[in-house]
Design brief:
Oligomer: heterodimer
Largest sheet of chain B: 4 strands, parallel
Radius of gyration of chain A: 24 Å
Number of helices of chain A: 17
Radius of gyration of chain B: 36 Å
Largest sheet of chain A: 5 strands, parallel
Strand order of the largest sheet of chain A: 4-7-10-3-11
Number of helices of chain B: 34
Shape of chain A: globular
Shape of chain B: elongated
């Protein structure tokens, strides 16, 4: 076992990628490691032609992944939007791994990201000693992706300043990046494209300029739209994480997942599961990722403090933390939900009493 | 030698089918065109041979004696049946319908309803009267596959839209002439092992017989245009005697039939028509422009046009990218050409920046549209009027132009039926009767109407045919539409009440659900409060009529809880107008809640809210006064508390206007309290006495307003109390010089009145 905590997707899922590539006879766009169809199989799961099982990497609507792959097959860039916890970066990593065989050309965009980290930087010792030259130039992941015909991933695009974002416009529309200092330019090779991710819920980020936005095809990754699907995701991720954190999973965990996910979904959708009562939605996102965090928190509490008993007392503080993001507004929302819905459900009596007490 | 028969298996409302049918008819040049449709309505095809009818239109048949049993056969421009009929008239071929007669359909529907009723009542008598072959409850005509087998095949192949599958799979067929043979083969495979239910078997037997008959009597080829599903059965060799046996003794009823204008939106499945299509305008586009690059560009441009109309940006460059993405998507999905789904997905990704909300906004307009069909003036258009006349006879209500009063007792069956009819007509904007006494404040089982018939009512009824074939159905349809559009809670509550009194429980149900959804979105206390009285009315009124109101009860509880939560905050920082409005609302709502006999916890929540509001120093004085009094009346503010709270609110350090506002709020409509409640009187007396002259004068009009609600006798009793004569501890005395002063006052007043 390697000492590296987490390997990039193309290493971890090498067997699957190799199996798919070995029997991939569908037409491939130039510069692609896999055909669009094989890429979809890799993302959504299935079997390679030699029978190797391909695990699903994304559980959700097939047509969104189809749109994403189809976009990359044209020369348009792809923007994955979504609230936190909807697997944007996960999908972007796997797309890059499958299409370019390399998911490591990443620019993590932050408020501190400047043009030098997006376009190219300079080796100042070289620059001072020999003046501007190709040798003095320090390529960025974007530069390398253009040069090598690979996919470049831009994480959290909207966190980067608008002026820096706009340096991408020339790259996206003309597929080249001028280097005025050398009076030259780097031209993108076939196979180059950009996958950006951005969060559409955060306040205070740098909204994309419409010029830039127009150059992206956008795929919004939604929260799971079906409770069974969400329960399945949460259960699977919770048991994965519990395993890596070496936490025992009590028997009633499955039932608790069901109840927590039910509460999350009802509040998030603003209606009860039976669709009969409408509710107010709290200000937080209540994403699947948060439901997973609530469960893992509960498991950790159960393992270290309550002798392995997973109960409402362990889960409630985490639920409260996830729901009440705005101390005034969200409390009213939760109180109303408890009074109008949870109170009437006999199998939620413990949730009702513990949560109302904590409120 | 019988004439050769060609079977053209179609997809109902499939533009691809329609095009193929026309091509096949051109090639075949049949002498007779047989079409799946009610055989007894063949005559009604005649207007289609002339100009004047503009689709979408529907063939409408209803039982002459019971118009509530009605069937519609809608046709769009792109319906293969419609095109086949038009072709036949244009080319001198004879078109006719060959399916089971409408008379049988409707008779069975009537019979089934009777059986269902009988079973519901557990009443054996009716059951025995009915021929036992007919004792089957209404089943869904056929299952989903039989209704749209091509759609089912498409879904199995991963398509959402059957037409895209049709064009990809069926029309990709290199030899177009073979299309119908290919479909027939597919249907044979699909029908393998399928045992048609009784009804389907009868329909197919009827069609087989009609085809055989036509073949015997016609010279020249015959074309049969029917749902693809039926082709294998119609081609099968079945002994004529078996078919005849199957069709023996079918019930019949007298049928009226006509054409009715239809709307494109109603062609869609979403509005409840069983064999409908999801996107009529997409189909119309396919019919007009076919498939191909130019058609795709047209549809993308249309999406952009609607988007722009709704205020979204859609640049030409984005349109180009959208068309490119549709091609790329089709390639990824391994489809020969982009279809509806590719168009939608590409548009969402590029034109709508990944958001589905704009799509939802434009969806209705883009896919359903607002097209309304037309029919010539000379066709009869009468089912609603017919239904009305029938009910008028039954209920012995004559339409008269002169006004006439009618008093109804809702406890009697006839009274209830008459009231229901009048309420339903009102819902249809035909105010034949005006309710003169809404019967709310008095007994809830009596209604007084003023009847007057006006000739234009008949015209309005004809216009409302689009909502349904009977008065009940049309009233329901119109109200349901109003409910869908309404965004104001109190108006919606009124509409739901209207639906209940018109005996339209399904509509009321929809309305209640909408109310529930709307209530959840509403934070505004005043809006919530305003919705409570009409709902309470409904519930009380409902007890005089037979209806289930459970959900309404739950909703009411919820509204009360919600407004109770919101009340203490809503009562703060109000200006004069808002305060008056809220006071009136609280007053009305409190009375309504008291009348409605809520369960303890609900009532407690409301009272607690009143108490909190009444006690809070931050409450606007006018509202504070009322809520304090209401809390005092139910005893959550004790007498001792009241005295100190009152003196606090009315204390001199407060601006006089605030104190007066509080006073007004507390006493308006409750002057009698002062007469009978000693403690209260002492508290008020203390305040009045503490006012300095200026403040007292300022407040005089207010006192007058409060005390003027008392009658002479009450005022006298109050005075007695104040003077200590009727017991109590007040010992006010008249000022010694009062009598003399009064004469001077009187003189001043007289002078003022005379204006000198």
């Amino acid at each position: 076992m390697s000492d590296i905590l987490r390997q990039p997707a193309e290493v971890t899922w090498k067997t699957e990628l190799d199996a798919l590539a070995a029997h991939d006879d569908a037409p491939k766009p130039e510069g692609w490691a896999l055909s669009p169809q094989a890429t979809l199989t890799y993302l959504l799961g299935g079997a390679a032609k030699d029978g190797t099982e391909i695990t699903p990497k994304y559980v959700g609507q097939r047509r969104l992944m189809e749109t994403a792959v189809a976009t990359l097959a044209t020369d348009r860039a792809l923007l994955l939007l979504g609230v936190p916890g909807t697997a944007k970066s996960w999908v972007s990593e796997h797309l890059a791994a499958a299409i370019a065989g390399d998911s490591t050309l990443v620019v993590q965009c932050t408020a501190g990201t400047d043009e030098n980290q997006v376009r190219y930087g300079w080796n100042y010792a070289q620059l001072l000693a020999h003046g501007p030259s190709t040798e003095a130039l320090v390529p960025t992941p974007l530069y390398r992706a253009m040069d090598g015909g690979k996919l470049c991933r831009l994480e959290e695009l909207t966190r980067m300043g608008s002026d820096v974002q706009d340096t991408l416009i020339t790259v996206l529309s003309e597929k080249m990046m001028p280097i005025p200092e050398l009076n030259s330019a780097v031209y993108a090779n076939r196979g180059f494209n950009i996958i950006a991710t951005a969060n559409n819920r955060d306040k205070g980020v740098n909204e994309l300029s419409s010029a830039l936005k127009r150059r992206f095809n956008v795929v919004v990754l939604p929260l799971p739209d079906d409770i069974d699907e969400e329960v399945q995701i949460v259960t699977k991720r919770v048991s994965d994480m519990a395993e890596s954190l070496q936490l025992a999973v009590p028997k009633n965990a499955a039932a608790e997942v069901m109840r927590v996910v039910t509460i999350f979904r009802e509040l998030r959708d603003g209606r009860t599961l039976d669709g009969k009562t409408a509710l107010k939605a709290p200000s937080g996102t209540l994403s699947t990722a948060e439901a997973i965090a609530v469960m893992v928190g509960g498991l950790s509490q159960a393992a270290y403090f309550t002798n392995g008993t997973l109960d409402v007392d362990g889960l409630a503080p985490n639920i409260l933390g996830a729901v009440v993001k705005d101390p005034v507004q969200d409390k009213t929302v939760l109180a109303e939900y408890l009074e109008t819905v949870v109170k009437k459900r006999r199998d939620y009596a413990d949730y009702y009493s513990v949560l109302s007490e904590m409120l | 030698m019988p004439a050769p028969v060609t079977y053209l298996g179609i997809r109902h409302h499939g533009p691809g089918s329609a095009r193929q049918v026309l091509a096949a008819l051109e090639a075949l040049q049949p002498a007779q065109v047989l079409i799946e449709g009610p055989a007894d309505l063949t005559e009604l095809m005649e207007p289609l041979g002339r100009p004047g009818i503009v689709p979408p239109v529907a063939l409408l048949a209803y039982a002459a004696k019971a118009p509530e049993y009605a069937s519609f056969w809608p046709f769009a421009e792109f319906s293969p049946e419609y095109q086949a009929i038009k072709w036949a008239f244009a080319h001198g071929a004879v078109p006719s319908f060959i399916d089971l007669p409408a008379a049988t359909n409707l008779a069975e529907a009537e019979l089934n309803a009777k059986v269902a009723d009988a079973l519901k009542d557990q009443d054996g008598d009716v059951l025995e009267e009915i021929d036992d072959t007919a004792v089957t409850l209404p089943e869904p005509a056929t299952d989903a596959i039989a209704r749209d087998p091509i759609g089912a095949l498409a879904q199995a192949a991963g398509y959402e839209d059957g037409e895209s599958w049709w064009s990809d799979v069926i029309e990709e067929n290199p030899d177009p002439g073979e299309v119908f043979a290919a479909i027939a083969t597919a249907m044979e495979a699909l029908r393998e092992g399928h045992i048609p239910d009784r009804r389907e078997a009868q329909r197919e037997a009827h069609m087989r017989r009609a085809i055989a008959k036509a073949a015997r009597h016609t010279e020249g080829p015959i074309a049969v245009v029917c749902g693809a599903w039926h082709v294998p059965a119609l081609r099968a060799k079945v002994k004529a005697s078996d078919d005849t046996a199957l069709l023996k003794g079918l019930p019949k009823t007298k049928v009226q039939a006509t054409w009715a204008p239809w709307t494109s939106a109603r062609l869609a499945r979403a509005t409840g028509y069983g064999a409908g299509i999801e996107a009529p305008l997409w189909y119309a586009h396919l019919w007009q422009h076919g498939v191909g690059q130019k058609a795709d560009a047209l549809w993308v441009a249309r999406m952009a046009e609607v988007l722009r109309d709704e205020g979204f940006d859609a640049s030409t460059a984005s349109l180009i990218e959208t068309v490119r993405l549709t091609r790329s998507l089709a390639a990824v999905r391994e489809r020969p050409s982009p279809g509806f789904e590719e168009m939608r997905d590409a548009a969402i990704s590029i034109l709508m920046h990944g958001e589905t909300l704009p799509w939802q906004i434009i969806e209705t307009r883009l896919l359903l549209g607002r097209d309304v069909g037309q029919i010539p003036d000379n066709l009869p258009l009468a089912p609603l009027l017919d239904d009305l006349q029938r009910q008028q006879r039954k209920l012995q209500l004559k339409p008269e132009a002169l006004e006439r009063e009618l008093s109804l007792d809702l406890r009697s069956e006839r009274g209830l039926a008459r009231s229901t009819l009048l309420h339903r007509l009102t819902a249809l904007d035909v105010p034949w009767g005006q309710l003169t006494d809404p019967g709310r404040s008095r007994g809830t089982f009596r209604e007084k109407w003023l009847l007057a018939w006006q000739p234009e009512f008949a015209v309005r009824l004809v216009e409302h045919l689009v909502y349904g074939p009977t008065i009940a159905a049309a009233a329901g349809g119109r109200m349901a539409e109003a409910i869908r559009r309404e965004t104001k809670l109190s108006t919606l509550a009124e509409t739901v009440r209207g639906a209940l009194v018109a005996q339209l429980p399904d509509v009321a149900q929809t309305g209640t659900e909408r109310l529930d959804a709307l209530a959840a979105e509403t934070d505004d206390c005043a809006t919530l409060l305003a919705a409570i009285p009409p709902i309470v009315d409904t519930l009380r009124y409902g007890t005089a009529r037979e209806m289930a109101l459970d959900q309404m009860e739950t909703l009411l509880d919820r509204l009360i809880i919600q407004s109770a939560v919101a009340l203490p905050y809503a009562a703060r920082n109000l200006d004069a107008d808002a305060a008056t409005a809220l006071r009136d609302l609280i007053d009305a709502t409190d009375q309504a809640i008291a009348l409605s006999e809520r369960a303890e916890p609900i009532r407690d929540a409301w009272i607690a809210a009143l108490t909190d509001t009444g006690r809070s120093d931050k409450t606007t004085p006018l509202v504070g006064g009322l809520t304090m009094r209401l809390a005092y009346e139910v005893g959550t503010i004790a007498v001792e508390d009241l005295a100190s709270l009152m003196s606090l609110r009315l204390s001199q350090s407060r601006p006089a206007i605030e104190a007066a506002g509080f006073f007004e709020g507390f006493f308006t409509g409750a002057g009698l309290k002062l007469v009978h409640d000693t403690d209260l009187r002492v508290a008020v007396d203390g305040w009045v006495m503490s006012l300095d002259e200026e403040a007292f004068t300022e407040n005089l009009p207010l006192f007058r307003r409060v005390f003027s609600t008392l009658d002479r006798n009450e005022r006298k009793v109050l005075l007695e109390h104040l003077l200590g004569r009727a017991g109590g501890n007040l010992t006010a005395t008249f000022a010694p010089e009062a009598e003399a002063l009064w004469a001077a006052q009187q003189a001043t007043i007289n002078r003022l009145f005379e204006g000198t």
